[in-house]
Amino acid sequence: MVTTERYLSYIPTSYQNYAQPYFEHIEQVMTSNSIDTSLRKAHFLAQVSEESQWFKYNKENLNYSDKALRSVFGKYFPTQELATSYARQPEKIANRVYANRMGNGDESSGDGWKYRGRGLIELTGKQNYQKYGLARNIDVLSTPEKLSEPYYAIDSAVWFWNSHSLNKYADQDDILTITKRINGGTNGLDKRKECLMIYKKIFRTIEKR
Q1: Is there a contact between 64 and 191 (Cβ–Cβ < 8 Å)?
Q2: Which of 11, 96, 135, 203 is at a distance of 20 to 30 A from 64, taking alpha carbons?
Q3: Distances (CA, A) of 117 to 41, 141, 146, 208
């Protein structure tokens, strides 16, 4: 078992304060949910480290400029005028781009913002919050902010991981497929590989003892 202190010693210094609350829970949550080999743990930790930027972020910000809205969410902002009217208004943006999908209501329902991405692998949409809550027998629909708490931020990421059968690819040391399953593409793949090497080094050191 890797201690919190040992994990932190490998985290970039400027992020250690962000990471500490997570590493107080992470070994127990991983091991009790079948992420229980060094290779599985290394892959899981590499992904959540990149997704959260070394544990600094655990919820979606959505504070986009008009230019970014046209680039990232062009489908929902087909005109410059529309993008300008939403720019730098995260709640308003979320309610538009997440409306009428993933179990959310329409834009006026507020579901887009209420169930925006949270956790170390950002769980998004009312339907996914509901699935996670049912799996864990907890109410996260009325308290969605719970997924920003360190324990639940980890646990929801573990639930996502297992729901998508990612241990299978971790066992094959297949970071590319895992990244695509989590990210929908290969965004940040090089950084994920760097993180993976760090975590593999931690476990190799432990196993040599």
Answers
A1: no
A2: 11
A3: 23, 13, 12, 39
Check residue 26 and report its DSSP letter. H
Distance (Å, whole) CA 18 – CA 48:
13
Whether residue 205 is predicted with pLDDT greater than 80 in this model: the reply is: no
User: Residue 98 corresponds to which tokens in the numbers above?
Assistant: 């997440």
The share of the chain scoring above pLDDT 70, in percent, equals 98
CB contact at 8 A, 101 and 125: yes
Secondary structure of 73-112 in HEC code, one letter for each residue: CCCCCCCHHHHHHHCCCHHHHHHHHCCCCCCCCCHHHCHH
- Report whether 126 contacts 104 (CB < 8 A): yes
pLDDT tens digits along 88-120: 999 999 999 999 999 999 999 999 999 999 999
List of residues 6+ apart from 33 with CB closer than 8 A = 155, 158, 159, 162
Residue 79 one-letter amino acid:
T
